[in-house]
Amino acid sequence: MNLANRITLARIFLVPIIMFFLLVNLKFPQIEMDQFSITYNQIIAALIFIIAAWTDGLDGYIARKRKLVTNLGKLLDPLADKLLVSAVLVSLVEMDKVGAWIVIVIISREFAVTGLRQIALLEGHVIAASKWGKWKTAAQITAIIALLINNFPFAFINLRFDLFASWVAAIITLYSGLDYFIKNKHVINFNE
User: Fold this and answer.
1) DSSP class per residue in 105-127
2) What are the pLDDT digits (tens) for 112-135?
3) Helix (H) or strand (E) run with residue 37 in it
4) Membrane-crossing residues (predicted)?
């Protein structure tokens, strides 16, 4: 259990804490300005989410720089990412902040690409992360943060950046999934 893997595990343990602050009514007061309001629960959840998302790059950097790449890390890192994004998105659906169809597109893509990677491993191939996979992650994190903080500061100018970012995340997620399947169609044998 090296430092990179501990950071990844910490990201996994942050998931229920974020969900707690999003879904449990703690009766904290709200911050209200003009037409904008946000609860302290959401602010705390957003800050924890930002820290958790930041650790995704940190654990990978440490693992590569210190040559600490392990099979456990290869398993835990994508699992932690999927748990973090999926749990927060499902919570945001529960809070009526994002459409369920967007979350279904995102989570379905994650299952599909994970399945493709498993098939590739069974065939002796490794599917590396693509540039579209990295863009997908950035788009999802941007959209989630905008949703968590109630579209701040764009709410003051009536710009639905949170909605726009959600659509962009869904489109890039869908495209990146198609890109993985098109580029790796050779690992799927439909004749079996």
Assistant:
1) HHHHHHHHHHHHHHHHHHTT---
2) 998 888 888 787 777 777 899 889
3) strand 36-39
4) 12-31, 43-63, 137-157, 163-182
In terms of DSSP H, where are the helices of the chain?
A: 3-23, 40-65, 71-94, 100-122, 131-148, 161-183
Q: What is the structure's pLDDT at 190?
A: 58
Q: What does the pLDDT look like over 11-42, one tens digit per residue?
A: 999 999 999 999 998 888 889 988 889 999 99
Inter-CA distances, 153 with 38, 40, 79, 115, 171, Å: 12, 16, 32, 39, 24
Q: What percentage of the chain reaches a pLDDT higher than 90?
A: 61
Angle at which helices 40-65 and 3-23 cross, to 10°: 170
Burial-class residue 157 by CB neighbours within 10 Å (0-12, 13-18, 19+).
exposed
Q: What are phi and psi of 37, to 5 degrees?
A: -145, 150
